[in-house]
Structures are given as C-alpha cells and as structure tokens.
Inverse folding.
C-alpha cells in the first residue's frame, strides 16, 4: 500500500492543525503558504478558541457541557435556522473538546482558560456560560522556533507576551495606561509569545520538530482532478509551477483582500471596507474549488465578524495597515454617523457592524455610512489610540482634532448640530453610567474586553466634555472571518452542488461556509472551527488509506 499524501494550502490554524494531525497519522504532508510569513490571520489573532465542555474548564471545576454549547449555537441562529447544518454543527461541537485535548496531549501547547470571560450573549441566550469556554495558549517560548522565528508576523493587534489574565488585571485590552510596560519588555526580551502568535508558533514548532515541510511564498493556483476526484494541486513558487500530488486540504482563509468578493459577500462598500488580517487572504479556496464543482454558500453579511477599525501605514509583509479600533468602547468616546447621531450600543463591536450594514435609509442607502469615533481629551490622555500611548500625539493625518465639537464636526464632515445635540444628550446620563438610548456597555463582554475596569460608575461610559475633541473615520475591518465559504459535509469533505463529496478535497477554517456555526457569531468560533476541521480532514484521509 502506498503512503497517503496530503497537500495543505494555507498555514493558518486550520492548515497547521490539519498538517500536524496528518503527520501524526502517518500521512506524508506538505504545507503550501502563499505569504512571506506564516500563520495567516491566526498569527495576528487573539488566540481565543471557543470550546464548550473543554477539559481545562472541567479541571477547574467550571460547570459546562457539550449540550449547552449546542443549545447556544442553536439560540444564536434562531432567526435563520435554515443556515445551520445540524450534522456538521454537532460534529464541530462534539469534536472540539477532544481536538483541544489532543494538541495538549501531543505536547504542542498548553491551554489556559481566559479567566472570567463570558460568551458574547451571556446571560441573554440559552446555553451561555459566564466563563470557561475560551481556550487560549499558555505563554510559548518563541526561541524554540530557531531560524523559523522570522516567519511570524509582529503582534500588531495584541500585546503578545502577556496573558489575558494579566491584561484584564490591568484593566483590559483597551485600557493601555495601566499595562505593566516593564513586564511587557521583559517578556519581549525572553521572546515570550501569547495570543494568536503563540498558537501559530506552537504549531509551526511542532511541524518543524516532525520534519513537515512548510513552503512559504508558494501558492496553490488550481487543483488537479482525475475522474471527478482531486489528486493534487498546482503550486506556483518563484515563477515556476509544479504539481504536488495527494489529497488537498484548502485552508486558505477568507477573502478579505479581494475587493470584489468582500463587497459581494460581506456587503461593505469598498471605500469603507478593510481587513486586520494579512493581505494574502483573497478567497483562493473558493476560486480553485469552484473549478472542480464545489459549492460555495453565502450567509448573511452580518454573520462575518467585521470590527470598527482605521487605516495606518503597513509595517510588515502582508500587512494591510488596518488596525482594529478598541478605543470606541472606552469612556469618553462614542460612535456617530454623518448626521452626528449615535445608532447602537457603541461599546459592542458587533452591534456597530450590524447597525451599519443592517440599517438603510429611505433611498436604500446605508443609513450610517460613513461613521466616526468621536472622543474628548481625557480619552486621549488616559487611553491613547492603537500604537499611540496614553497622552501621546496622534500621527499626522490620522486623527482630526479641534477646540470645539462644532469645529470637529466640520473637519470630519459631520452635521455640527446633530453632533452637539447627541453629545449633550449622551452627557446628560453618562455621569450616572447610564445610556437610556442604546444601553451602551450593558453586555458583560463589553465591560470586560472593551471598557476601563477602573472607571466608575461604568467601565464603558463617561462624558465627552474636555476639549480638544478628537475624531476619526472608521471602516469595517474584516478579521479573516468570511460570510461565504465552501460547503462541507462531515469529515471536512467539500461538497459539490448536488450535495456529494468531491473525493480527495477537504477544507477547514475560514475557507468554509459557516454551516456549522449558523448565522450567529461569538469570538473564538472561528479558530475552533479550524481546529476541528483540520483534525477531521486528516482523520478521514487516514481512514481511507487504512485496510478495512
Ligand atoms: C486581529 C484579529 C483577531 C482575531 N481574534 C480571533 C480570536 O481570538 N478567536 C477566533 O476564533 N478568531 C479570531 N480571529 C479570526 C481568526 O484569526 C481567523 O478566522 C482564523 O485565523 C482563520 O484561520 P484559517 O486557518 O482558516 O485561515 P488563516 O489563519 O487566515 O490562514 C490562511 C492562510 O492561507 C494562506 N493562503 C491564502 N491563499 C493561499 C493559496 N492560494 N495558497 C497557499 N496559501 C494561501 C494565507 O496567506 C494565510 O496564511 C481574529 C482575526 C484577527 C485578524
């Protein structure tokens, strides 16, 4: 019997897990990565992996189980039950705890629970939990990567080196003034990695230890099919093309940086779209798989996470320059549209996205595009913005500042009267930590993750009154999570339009339609889908090779 072979396209979590699992099962494996760097959106991510009923929570005595996880996913998608495929959803939730444990048992990484971190919709939806479901890698020693260390992108979105527990103890991700800079510097000096960087690094190190090749700047450009089965992939590298034979796992991530696909499926008009994921995510899986008859399914645009963000200058290979805006959830800031009106719970990123994309004006136009964050100088002094530390000066050309709200409105193209009235109304209740209009920061998640734990009476609410005032136009930054993808059958097999598996073709992670998670979104779903998807595909390839 010949050794089975798996060609993995993409070196994000889904691809790296698939490669590791395949190698573990005796499959000859190669990883093909288009970018100069490894890890895709995964390496830039928060590294939160949502696993209901996981072994780490059980170890800590946290009450949870798979059935509650399933109940939550169903509740999330209650408005669109047709978007949920029960079989693949159950397979995902059932497999995730074992998949997480398998990585730990293999010695690839150690998982930690993100302490005190609730599901997005806790306690509103059934099946939710106040903590225990977010796994994240324990600090990982980047020096273990040796020469491969240069293949990881810098951690531009998260302070790699510290843990979620430390971050929360310092007042949260957005509250940078309390970050222990000395500790951060020490962790950097010892190349301690956390968040998505640790996830990518741990997997990359494990593959290197096992001798699984990961070829960068190599791109899967099409699939090779024989008699209706996929038997390999055409790979372009350095101007030459060759065929890698074997079953193919497509783990090429989302389509964030393909403007046509991003607008078609995620519904964000190009000038307002962006991505905080690498610019190599161009929907390649959809294209190459469609050529062999794969079915692509689009979920409503809202099901893809897009976060308020803004654009800076790119700083590393593959960087779009877009940065996630964490600061909108802090006190002394609000989000308004061109009329100067608030329009949602503007401390909760998904609420902003839903309102911006979901609410139309009388002529069918987006009611809240363009949209802006507006804040006062206390916010600047206390929190900073992206890489600008608290009290720092904003880089020229990024932020508009003015001595009055009227001047700020004029500078940003916002209606001055609308903005003045909105701020006055917001301030009326803000001192009491209340927002009767939109219940800003009512979700425990926003308080914990987007607020300032030291700000009383509410971590997300504070008046806007100290000049100078500041504002920036926001864009809807994609995060490597698409609304459309390849339709999967169980075992990560790619379906054709008749609902039959295309032999030899697998997909996982953000290349796949969210038929397992349905219409709703919770952070951590995405990496969790990649984890189980990668493992299931490898097992299926191995099962075909085994004698019956
Ligand atoms: C800032 C940020 C924070 C996030 N935080 C979280 C979080 O905490 N939890 C969570 O679940 N999700 C999070 N996400 C989303 C999550 O990171 C992605 O959805 C997930 O990493 C997707 O994994 P993947 O393996 O499918 O694809 P990716 O990690 O995006 O990897 C795809 C890889 O495929 C490569 N590729 C593309 N085309 C080709 C080709 N033709 N041939 C070869 N290679 C190709 C790409 O270069 C890329 O390296 C976050 C994303 C961002 C950007």
């Amino acid at each position: 019997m010949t050794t089975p072979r798996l060609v993995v396209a993409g070196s994000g979590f889904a691809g790296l897990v698939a490669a590791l699992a395949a190698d573990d099962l005796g499959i000859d494996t190669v990883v093909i990565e288009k970018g100069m760097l490894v890890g895709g959106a995964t390496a830039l991510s928060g590294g939160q992996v949502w696993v209901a009923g996981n072994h780490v929570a059980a170890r800590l005595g946290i009450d949870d189980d798979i059935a509650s996880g399933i109940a939550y996913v169903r509740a999330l998608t209650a408005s669109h039950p047709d978007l949920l495929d029960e079989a693949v959803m159950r397979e995902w939730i059932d497999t995730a705890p074992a998949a997480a444990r398998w990585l730990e048992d293999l010695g690839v990484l150690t998982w930690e629970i993100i302490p005190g971190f609730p599901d997005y919709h806790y306690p509103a939806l059934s099946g939710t939990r106040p903590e225990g479901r977010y796994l994240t890698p324990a600090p990982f020693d980047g020096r273990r990567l040796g020469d491969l260390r240069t293949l990881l992108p810098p951690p531009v979105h998260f302070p790699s080196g510290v843990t979620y527990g430390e971050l929360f103890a310092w007042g949260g991700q957005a509250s940078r003034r309390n970050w222990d800079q000395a500790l951060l510097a020490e962790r950097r000096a010892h190349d301690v990695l956390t968040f998505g960087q640790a996830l990518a690094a741990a997997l990359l190190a494990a593959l290197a230890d096992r001798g699984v090749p990961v070829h960068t700047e190599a791109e899967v450009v099409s699939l090779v099919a024989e008699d209706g089965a996929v038997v390999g992939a055409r790979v372009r590298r350095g101007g030459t093309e060759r065929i890698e034979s074997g079953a193919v796992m497509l783990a090429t991530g989302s389509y964030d940086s393909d403007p046509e696909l991003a607008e078609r499926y995620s519904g964000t008009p190009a000038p307002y779209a962006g991505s905080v994921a690498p610019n190599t995510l161009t929907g390649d899986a959809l294209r190459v798989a469609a050529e062999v008859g794969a079915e692509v399914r689009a979920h409503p645009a809202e099901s893809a996470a897009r976060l308020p963000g803004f654009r800076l200058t790119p700083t590393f290979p593959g960087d779009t320059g877009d940065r996630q805006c964490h600061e909108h959830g802090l006190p002394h800031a609000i989000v308004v549209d061109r009329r100067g009106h608030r329009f949602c719970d503007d401390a909760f990123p998904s609420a902003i996205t839903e309102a911006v994309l979901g609410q139309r004006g009388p002529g069918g136009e987006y009611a809240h595009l363009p949209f802006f964050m507006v804040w006062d100088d206390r916010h600047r002094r206390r929190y900073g913005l992206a890489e600008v530390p608290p009290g720092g000066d904003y880089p020229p050309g990024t932020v508009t500042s003015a001595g009055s709200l009227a001047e700020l409105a004029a500078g940003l193209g916002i209606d001055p009267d609308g903005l003045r009235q909105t701020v006055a109304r917001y301030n009326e209740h803000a001192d009491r930590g209340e927002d009767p209009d939109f219940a800003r920061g009512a979700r425990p998640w926003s308080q914990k993750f987007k607020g300032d734990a030291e700000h009383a009476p509410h971590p997300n609410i504070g008046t806007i009154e100290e000049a100078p005032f500041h504002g920036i136009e926001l864009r809807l930054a994609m995060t490597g999570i698409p609304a459309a993808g390849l339709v999967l059958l169980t075992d990560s097999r790619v379906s054709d339009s008749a609902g039959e598996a295309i032999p030899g073709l697998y997909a996982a992670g953000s290349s796949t339609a969210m038929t397992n998670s349905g219409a709703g979104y919770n952070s951590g779903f995405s990496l969790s889908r990649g984890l189980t998807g990668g493992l299931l595909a490898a097992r299926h390839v191995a099962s075909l090779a085994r004698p019956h």
